[in-house]
Specification:
about 500 residues; alpha/beta; five-stranded parallel β-sheet; 18 helices; six-stranded parallel β-sheet; globular
């Protein structure tokens, strides 16, 4: 009886405290439920801005990068050689004058880190310059970079090979295409050979088989003669278009040994990077009414399969009302025409040419001109971080080549849809920005810019790369280990 009374007494004294506890519990459940409701049922577009902000946040564990100790003659020394050489025979007078002015400016200041060429044929591939510039920036200024430079290769996640491969190739091409395909007398080949011999004789390469080495090969012909030898490495490329084609002009007559096998490039290990845009950024607040429906400026005739599609598109669209198709080259005059054309057009055509992509796409984004992508095999930078369907129109080649189909399709987009595309483009414009605004590219990079997104993409590759290195160790000599994806 005494026990029963004690129990009743205990219950009666605890009840006053249980009411607020129940109330707080109920409130917490409601709060969590409301949070889940807003996350699950609000539109993806309304969450995209916060997603972009989180992408720009730097994780606490950066990627650790060791810079291979290549001679200066293979990077900044190449720039000095470029500025002291004669003008490029492939350029028009206006662009030659621009380059000459830049060259004199560089010599007078005797810069330790010379500027990259303004030559549009080369500048569009300048990722190599900006990535190395980030790594060469003093560590106390690199607070916004996702890459941490280390000076002991054993501490590194990756080994960056600081060879300006695009500049090397384009300097040789400027002297004439005939010599480029040969090895004897080809200065670019001699530089390629020097780079490969250097890295392959290093302990770092022998330790990993080169799988953790990073090469920047943004020009489709960069390191053309030695690609088979560096295929295990992480390759930073603008697309895969130049890698698995049979070259009918090769000296061997086009046998299988001249083909770069598809297995040498893969989204498992390689990273698609942006071209450097050639046109200035147009801010959303500066956008004006656009009178033209569709705009394209470039070469009508290209050499490979994508070029055939481009020619057919040209013939279909050239006489369409509201469509401007201009043949032109990105020299000083052509640049101003492109700025005017892209900024006054609703849509900008992006067909495949020699390769599935071009700098034109990134110029369109900077001009707030909605890209119309007619390239079935295109690969784009930072997929998984960006949803390109939010600011680009993708069209199958088979549809685009139907008479009257493309123009009718583009006219079906409402003003609200077009404005939505442009708002999204304004958000993503900084992601494709390389230039850090400092002389020689040496200085803090934009936190949400192209270089940091490249580092993050390389970081995503590390698990599969490290697994491949470990698996390689158990194989008998002479047996290679392919990269594998264990995704379901």
């Amino acid at each position: 009886m005494a026990l029963k009374n004690n129990i009743n007494s205990s219950i009666s004294t605890s009840l006053p405290c249980s009411v607020p506890i129940l109330f707080l519990t109920f409130t917490s459940i409601c709060t969590v439920s409301l949070s889940l409701f807003f996350f699950l049922f609000t539109s993806p577009s309304s969450r995209s801005s916060s997603s972009l902000i989180s992408q720009n946040a730097l994780p606490s564990d950066p990627i650790k990068v060791y810079v291979a100790d290549l001679p200066r003659s293979l990077n900044y020394g190449l720039l000095e050689k470029y500025w002291s050489s004669g003008s490029d025979s492939r350029l028009g007078r206006d662009t030659d004058n621009e380059i000459q002015s830049k060259k004199i400016h560089s010599q007078e200041r005797n810069l330790k880190f010379p500027p990259y060429p303004e030559n549009p044929l080369i500048k569009q591939y300048s990722a190599e310059y900006w990535i190395l510039g980030d790594l060469m920036t003093p560590s106390e200024q690199r607070t916004s970079s996702f890459a941490k430079r280390v000076y002991d290769v054993r501490e590194s996640d990756i080994v960056f090979v600081p060879f300006f491969a695009t500049l090397s190739a384009e300097m040789q091409l400027g002297k004439g295409k005939g010599l480029f395909r040969k090895k004897v007398g080809n200065e670019d080949y001699e530089r390629q050979r020097e780079v490969v011999d250097f890295v392959k004789n290093s302990e770092a390469w022998k330790r990993s088989g080169g799988r953790d080495h990073v090469f920047v090969l943004t020009d489709p012909v960069a390191m053309w003669h030695v690609r088979e030898e560096i295929a295990p490495a992480i390759l930073l490329v603008v697309d895969f278009g130049g890698w698995y084609r049979l070259d009918s002009k090769s000296s061997g007559g086009g046998n299988s040994s001249d083909m770069i096998q598809h297995t040498q490039v893969s989204l498992l290990k390689d990273v698609i990077v942006p071209y450097t845009h050639l046109l200035p950024r147009l801010h959303l607040a500066e956008n004006k009414k656009r009178q033209t429906l569709l705009y394209f400026k470039g070469a009508k005739h290209r050499h490979r399969q994508g070029g055939l599609v481009r020619e057919k598109l040209w013939d279909l669209l050239v006489d369409e009302p509201g469509v401007i198709m201009e043949e032109g080259f990105p020299n000083a005059t052509g640049r101003e025409q492109s700025i005017k054309g892209m900024r006054s057009s609703e849509f900008c055509l992006h067909p495949a040419g020699d390769t599935p992509t071009s700098c034109r796409f990134f110029d369109a984004v900077q001009s707030l001109c909605i890209p119309v992508i007619v390239s079935d095999n295109i690969e784009l930078p930072f997929e998984g971080m960006l949803d390109y369907s939010e600011f680009s129109v993708f069209v199958a080649v088979s549809d685009a080549l139907k008479p009257n189909w493309l123009v009718s399709h583009l006219r079906s987009f409402s003003k609200e849809q077009r404005d939505g595309y442009r708002r999204k483009m304004a958000e993503v414009q900084p992601i494709f920005q390389y230039d850090n605004g400092y002389p020689g590219g040496i200085g803090p990079i934009p936190r949400g810019g192209a270089v940091n997104h490249i580092w993050k993409k390389v970081h995503q590759k590390l698990p599969v790369i490290k697994e491949a290195i470990v698996r390689e160790k158990r194989k008998p000599p002479g047996v290679s280990v392919p990269l594998r994806c264990h995704c379901t």
